[in-house]
Amino acid sequence: MLDYIADHPDPAGVSLKDIARGLGLHKSTLLRLLAPLTDNGLVLRDAERARYRLGSHAAYLGGAYLERLDLREVARGALAGLAGQTGHTARLSIREADETVLVDAVEGSGPMPVRPRLGARHPLHTGTAGWALLARLDDAEVARAEKAARLAAAGDPASEVVAEELRAAVNAARRHGFAVEDGTAGSGVLSVDAPISNHDHAPVAAIGLSGAMAGSAQSASVSSLGTLVRGAAHEISRALGARAGRAGVADGGAHLGTHGPAGHPGSVAVPNGSGRPSSRGSEPTSQHPAKEAAHVDRRQVISTQAAPQPVGAYSQAIVAGGFLHTSGLGPHDPVTGRVAGRTIEEQTEQTMRNLASVLNAHGLDFSDVVRATVHLQHLNRDFDDFNAVYERHLTPPYPVRTTVGADLANVLLEIDMMAVLR
């Protein structure tokens, strides 16, 4: 109930009727539950408007929790778990201005343990910890990092290539939820990092692994290492106050796309030591890899950090039978996780941007869409204004469409689409 009240977009609060409808509870039950919350200042009731919003005591409790947090202490268990599970060295880096600083590490038991120096500083544009953090920052920050990379390579004819490779590494980290350097440039060390977010959903740190590229009995594929690191970052972010499925905080149990840019089942695009993309296939997880590959070919999961992350048992999109099928997407901001906009026009605009991001993750756009299903909270009131925004994003011939009224929780619309593959 507190989450529902906190997530409601209207700063004036939410009515008892809306809470009851959104949570599927009777009003009498809600009134009984709300009484101790309002008595203790966690919820404030505006008697004149008969609406509820978070009270000041909620801020006090949140502040008290955050004041007692120690990032190293919170992450220590995750570091030890990663090192023990993989044999690689687990690292924790924080962001300070335009640098990353290594603040903790747990050495792995592999044949070539990496012994990082605590306190070591590196520019954001170098190394997977910096790339992972940049992946959660806006394009202006990435552009600053590219400029720094060019300046660092001043006098080198390949300085522009360095900036392009940085952009490729950051984009790959945005797609997968983790950054990778595969060591083929000569270091022989594989590094994987994922970003950690705080309660404001700002990227404040990165957790990662470093170890030998191959030769260890405990060595794992890039995709499985990335999934482990991403899951650890997700849990630490939750401990720091970031909401699950918000702000691009990756779900530790989410699957990567089963086809990488090279088109191989289970492959994932990773930058090498110079930031260039390469392909490294994932190891089979079945005793019948050929049979498993045939299954993967029929269904491919599409996942992108540029759209809201799933908060239930569903994928953002699935490719199957020659089509891409999206889940129903609403007007949630991919970074903050909150509903963007109050009007139907604003929420439709954000929803269409989210759908475009999912389509773009598989190289498609709205011209490839053949069907759309639209759910409107207020069908008669909002249809014309919704349709005007929707139409701006499409060109004739328009896809077929079904528009229905629906009882939606906390949003004015939801849209799912089906697009034909190219």
TrEMBL record:
Residues 1-56 form the HTH iclR-type domain. Residues 57-242 form the IclR-ED domain. InterPro entries: GAF-like_dom_sf, HTH_MetabolicPath_Reg, RutC-like_sf, Tscrpt_reg_IclR_C, Tscrpt_reg_IclR_N, WH-like_DNA-bd_sf, WH_DNA-bd_sf, YjgF/YER057c/UK114. Gene3D superfamilies: 3.30.450.40, RutC-like (3.30.1330.40), Winged helix-like DNA-binding domain superfamily/Winged helix DNA-binding domain (1.10.10.10). Residues 271-286 have a biased composition (Low complexity). SUPFAM superfamilies: GAF domain-like, Winged helix' DNA-binding domain, YjgF-like. Keywords: DNA-binding, Transcription, Transcription regulation. It holds the Pfam family Ribonuc_L-PSP. Residues 289-299 have a biased composition (Basic and acidic residues). Residues 251-299 are annotated as: Disordered. This is Reactive intermediate/imine deaminase. The lineage of its organism: Bacteria, Bacillati, Actinomycetota, Actinomycetes, Kitasatosporales.
